[in-house]
Amino acid sequence: MVVFEYRQIELDYCPGCFGVWFDEGEVELLLETAGPASGDAVLKLIVVTRDATETKRRCPVCDKPMDKASVPGGKVILDRCPHGNGIWFDAGEFAAAFAESAGETAGQDGTIRVITDFLGEALDKRHEET
Amino acid sequence: MWELIRANRRKSVFLVVIMAALLFVVGYAAGELLIGQGGGVIGLFFAFAVWIIMTLVAYFQGRQIFMTVSGAQKIKKEDHPQLWNVVEEMVIASQLPKIPDIYIIDDPAPNAFAAGRNPANAAVAVTTGLLNRLKRDELQGVIAHEIGHVKNRDILFMTMIGVMLGAIVLITDIAVRSMFYGGHRRRSRTASSGGSQFELIILVAGIVLMILAPLLAHLIYLAASRKREYLADASSAQFTRFPEGLALALEKIAHTPIKMKKINRVTAPMYTVNPLQKASAKAAGLFSTHPPIGERVKILRSMAGGSTYMAYNEAFQQITGSRSSIVPQSALISPESRPAGTAPPGPVPGLRQMEGAALLAAAVPEPATQAGKVRQTTDALWKARNYRFIHCDCGAVLKVPPDFKRREFKCLRCKKVHSA
Q1: Which end of chain A is more exposed for a tag (fewer CB within 10 A), N or C?
Q2: What are residue B356's phi and psi, to 5 degrees?
Q3: pLDDT on residue B341
Q4: Interface pTM (ipTM) of the complex?
C-alpha cells in the first residue's frame, strides 16, 4: 500500500488495483478541518446493504469481515469495518463515483458532503492536467 | 539530588542481590531434589548462569527490550523537528550530558515514558496520541517530567526491575503451560524415570516462580513509588518554569477515553500517567503506582512561589497536608546559604542556557492546524520506517514503503506515473 496525502488528509491505496482505504482517524480529521460538521453521523449515513452479493473483505486494521454498505440511494457499494476502523473502496474510480452519486442523494447533509467533496476533489480525473 | 541518585543505585544493587539469592535457593533445592545428594551444586551452577544472563540483559538491553515490547520507533531529528526541539530544550534546562534517544509509539492514547541505565544512555518515548493532542507547552511539561526521571536516576531501577519481572513472568508462563500439557502425557503412557524427573524440575521451578512473580510485581510498584512521580512533576515545573503546562497535559491525558493498545502490568508503571489506573480513583492506595491525577494537578496549580523545587515542595505540603518533604534536602538549599565549593542544584547556572533554549524554541514553530499537527506526527513515523516521500505535480504527496515491489506506479489523483 502507498500512502496518499492530499490537503493534509491521508488515504492508503493499492497501486495494483487502485483500491482505497479511508481510515476512520483520517475521516475524523477531515471533518474537524472542515469545521463543525454534523458529528458522528458518518456511520449512520453509510448504511449496511444486506442484498449485496459481493464476497466479503476483511478489515485491514482489525481483520474482521467488513459490512457491505452504501449511502441511501447511492449506486456504489463499499466495505465498511463493523468496528468503525474505516471504509474500503474497491478502486479509486469507485471512490470518485461514490463521491458523485452520494453527492446527489445526500447533498443536504454536511458530514457526508465534506467527505464526498474531499474524495471528489482528491480523485477526480478532471484534475489530470493540473 | 545526590541522595536520590545514591538511593536509586542502592536499590538497583539490592534488586540484583535479591534476585541472586532467590535463584540460588531455587537452583540448589531443585538440584538436591532431582539429581540426589551433591546435585545442589549443579543446580547452583545453573542458577548462577541464569542470574548472570538476566542481570546483563536487564542492564545492557533493558532499554531496547522495553522499546521493542511497547512497539516504539526510534526517530531522527529531521523526522520530527518539533519534538526533537522540545526534548533538546529540556535537556539544556536539566543539564543532562546528552540528548536521549527519542522514540514514537503508534498509539492513539496520549502517554510517555523514559528508560535506560543512566543519563548518557537514556531514551524517551511518546505516543502519537500525545503528539496529536497536546499543545507545545503541554508537551514540554510531559517531556520535562520524563527528563526528570532520567535526571533523578529513576530509569535504571525501573528498567531493570521491569525486565526481570518480564523474564520471571515469561518463565512462569512456560513452566505452568508445560506442567499442564506434561500432566496429560503422563497419564497416557508409562513415564520413564528421566521423564518424571524432568517434569518434577519444571513443577518445582513453576511453583517457586509462581510465588515469586507477584512478589516482584509488588517490588515494581515500590519502584514506581508515588514520591518519584511527585518529584518528577517538581522537576518538570523547575525545568519548564511553567507548571501549568504539565497540569493541562495531565488533565488532557486523564480525560482521554482511549485505552492504550500495547500495555501490560510490567510496562504500566513506566508511563507519565499509569494507563491501567482508573482516572476516577481519588485515594492513592497502597498499590497505586502513580498519585491521583487530580492531586498532581492541584499541587502544580498552587505553586505560588514560582516554579522551583522549593515552591513545589510547599504546594505539596499544603495540598496533601503532609509534613514530609518530597524534594531531597540538597535541592532545597538556596544558592546563598550553600557552603562554598559545593555544586549548585542545576537551575542556577542553567539560567543563561535557558535563553539559548528559547532561541531554539523559536526555530521550530507548532503547526497551525490540527491536521498539520497529525501529519507532522504520522510523517515522523513514516520517515522512521524509511518511507520515501514523492511530491506529485498535482499537489498530492505519495509515501512509499521501503519494501515496495513495483518499479513504477501511478498517482491516485492525476494518474501520473512515478518510478519507485
Answers
A1: C
A2: -60, -40
A3: 44
A4: 0.83
